[in-house]
Amino acid sequence: MKISQRGTIPAFIVMDVMKAAAEREASGEGVLHMEVGQPSTSAPRGVIDAAKKALDDDLLGYTLATGILPLRERIARHYQDYYGVTVPPERICVTTGSSAAFLLTFLAAFDPGDKVAILRPGYPCYRNILGALDIEAVEVPVGPESRFQPTLAALDAAGGGDLDGLLIASPANPTGSMLREDELEQILDYCRRHAIRYISDEIYHQITYGADGIEAATAVAHDEQAVVINSFSKYYSMTGWRLGWMVLPEDMLRPVERLAQNLFISAPSLAQHAAVAAFDCGLELDANVARYARNRKLLLAELPKAGLDRLAPADGAFYIYADVRAFTNDALAFCAQMLEETGVAATPGNDFDPVDGASYVRFSFAGSDEDMAEACRRLQSWLANSGKVTGR
Ligand SMILES: Cc1ncc(COP(=O)(O)O)c(C=O)c1O
Fold first, then answer.
1. At what angle are helices 97-109 and 124-132 packed, to 10 degrees?
2. pLDDT tens, 328-366?
3. Is residue 318 within 8 Å of residue 41, measured between CB atoms?
4. pTM score > 0.85 for this model?
5. Ligand 1 pocket test: which of 178, 201, 233 has the largest number of ligand atoms within 8 Å of its C-beta?
6. Do both 147 and 245 map to the same domain?
7. Domain that holds residue 173
């Protein structure tokens, strides 16, 4: 029987690393999880209580395709409270994680053959979803010289006016790097001049460390034509609840609604009812961020002692993207061997960068203080004996 070409999209490698780590755990050996980009905490207490109440009181049927009104109103209020920006709830569409928001945005904004610029290194699913939709992902290489964010010259080099879309995450995965507000404004201005649809992945907002005075700026405040995507997965510590949202430009409201009706009917009802409470759980959630900040500080101090001293900025999110060229040119084998010999699971850069990623490893520091300290100790002693590392 025929099988579609779309199914040949690359695997999301981190999921494969998670599988190897789970196999190790199943065989009774411990794993220090630095591979997966998710908080090691549950949803906040208020969300769990709201979910219990919804289970008892609510029918939990389908919702409107764009989400329940109380949640859209609460998200709108969050823009007012946190960023000081007024957004009508009608411009908000609740989705099945930000993952569904990407699919809906790409389908609503672009046709097959259109060109959408993404950063390399960057979150792998952008490239893979665009590929599955026959939309051309134009990679913009970024590196330490521009804090892993694009310059206007890099956008020109990627095709400039020929582009139909540009997608940037700030803070970014895997580098944690952020755009300064004036850089975001320049990029938005560039996109307006070239009729490029800007998509802003703001999933790591509120997980920032004030490094070099950089604060996360929302594209909602600067451009009504931009699509802004966010999620309950990271700051709100709700990965498995599968809930995200978009702030949409007027011209995309009805197209996205029609696509969402047909593709998903609605986002999970229980998660939506519970998530209304998430915005009132700041104390608990900020305590998680304080732990990420401690872990970040620890890793930035300890990884260099292990010989990993070329690290991306980590302005936000919970990742350190380390150049491991001094030890290997095969990050896949390096990570497999590291898991096998130290029990530390991390993600090879190949996931984020098909060209140079084999020289990088991403360490997630969303875990507990104890796990991060132990991981540092093990890496230091393992790399001190690095003659045994593959690819050297
Ligand atoms: C940059 C970025 N965007 C989007 C996602 C997808 O998250 P979700 O579908 O859980 O909202 C992730 C997950 O790791 C991510 O790192």
1. 40
2. 999 999 999 999 999 999 999 998 999 999 999 999 999
3. no
4. yes
5. 233
6. yes
7. 45-281
